[in-house]
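Example 463.
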Amino acid sequence: MGELLLHGGLVATQIDGGQLLEDGAIRISAEGRIAALGPSAEVASDEIRADFPGEVVDLGGRLVLPGQINAHNHLYSALARGMAPLGERPATDFVGVLETLWWPLDRALDEESVYLSALFGLMESARAGVTTVVDHHASQGFVRGSLDAVARAARDLGLRLSTCFEVTDRDGAEVAAAGLEENAAFAASLKDASPLGGAPQITATLGLHASFTLEDETLARAGRLVDELGLPGVHVHLSEDRADAEDALRRGGVRPTQRLDAHGLLRPGSLTIHGLWVDEAEIALLAERGCLLVTNPSSNMNNGVGRCDLARLRAGGVRVAVGTDGMSGDVLNSLALAYFARRDAARDPSVGWDDALALLAGNRAVAEVFFPGAQLGTLRTGGPADLVVMDYLPFTPLNAGNLLGHVLYGGLASRTRDVICGGRYVLREGRFPQLGEDFAELSRRTQLAAQSLWDRRALKPNT
Ligand SMILES: [Zn+2]
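Predicted structure in complex with zinc ion:
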């Protein structure tokens, strides 16, 4: 690809605590890095534009933001939209939701449905202004090669991805071992991967489902594997529901956080997801180990599992981040929900802003775990050109100090017009140029694959 010169935009270098250029320009190198960032008069003057060797794009005053980071998603769940759970009556607790909805689905996924689910899940992410997705993949009926299928979707579309396989013992020791092997094989396959905008496009970690579906032997093997492969840590659900804590206590008299820690799984590069039912000792341990805890408010509300107490976690020194947990690709919507949920829980309209700032910083920290040194979530000269153009011409004053207010109250993510990742257009005026012209055909094919997946899952036995 050639160089790109964007000018005449309202350019924010970060949602929080960055600079705002009222008439800003961004010059993107052929390699996909930001070569220059500044006022249009300097970076994209008439003379520069006239002699520019690549494409010149007038942003027409639209808002430009850094591409957003989704700290926890399940791309494998994208084809579940509109799907009814199995069973005659709706599940009345969290484990019931897993048994009637998610576990039958992940046993029925095959190579084509994993690829298409990831592709459409990533498209939804791009449409919500996300350029980096941290994925937690499960397809217990199609383990070997599944992460390649997810990564292929990210390469075909041009987004940045970190993924891993959710290892679990719920389908037996053989499937658990295959899951560990899939994590290892995928991580090894990325050694010579080509970069995007000067940073890796695809990275890996070690995925684990949750303490309550994992045997001690598997946890021990996971800990050894993280060391052997030099992975950042693990990506694991933690105390999403009280059932996780009850199970760990039954097994060995300790809670899930201590159980994971006993196998060396809690590290600064580990992502712990949810953390609704953690006690004070667990909070202290998460803080001591430096783990990141990712909250997913829309998912918690949907599953009726309770609230994540961000204030308590943050007061205990835990670093927090935000994700969507497969509910959608829209991480800024999740950010807004976390903010409103905090006010709702506290019955106090003065709180929440600091939490939103902490979550944005946390998502940048999550990206640094998987893409160290890239400083994703920030636009800067020399950094990867991961940015989004919003169809948003603000009708109230917008400045660096109140941009977060526009994001939380303005539903900005739904206005995503263009997405550039590593200097390449992923979304342009609502279309995906990498996918060619047969988008309607691709959608039809995917709908057939989804129907077949829904039909198949009822045939797979629960184990
Ligand atoms: Zn999850």
